[in-house]
Amino acid sequence: MSTDILEEYEEKLTEFYGATFANAVLTELLKLAAIQRVSPTFFWRMIHKDHDDDKFIDAYVAANAVYLVSEDSHYQGIFTVDFPLVQWMRFVNFTNWLRGKPALLQRKKQKQNQ
User: Fold this and answer.
1) Closest CA relative to residue 55, chosen from 34, 39, 71
2) Where is the PIN domain (predicted)?
């Protein structure tokens, strides 16, 4: 999780629920063992339709993450990029993977349709 992502979460949570709630959520989020703080040093600018989403790619690469989980359709643009390879999947596929079922990576699905 990068500072840019935390700032976006804070902005959206504050907008909808207020600053007190936003601060409480972020404080608890950062206590989770599964959260890894990263400071990206390279900015890939892979999401041409919405560069605000690039921060998630940057954190994914900096963390050497296995999957990028998102419902945002802007990530379909990564299918045209060979490097860095981004393993993107939708939330339902991620929850299936957590339950031990095969994960359908969006990249593989897209390439099969070409």
Assistant:
1) 39
2) 1-73
* Dihedral angle of Cα 107, 81, 84, 52, to the nearest 10 degrees: -90
CA angle 8, 11, 16 (to 5 degrees): 125
Hey, which bits of the chain come out as E strands?
68-69, 88-89
Q: How far is CA 52 from CA 26, 75, 77, 96, 105, in A?
A: 20, 12, 14, 28, 23
Supply the pLDDT for residue 98. Answer: 86
What residues does 88 pair with on adjacent strands?
Answer: 68
Q: What are phi and psi of 47, to 5 degrees?
A: -100, 90
State CA 111 to chain mean position distance.
Answer: 21
Round the average pLDDT of the chain to a whole number and report it.
84
pLDDT 10s digits, 28-77: 999 998 889 999 998 888 877 778 888 999 999 999 998 888 888 777 76
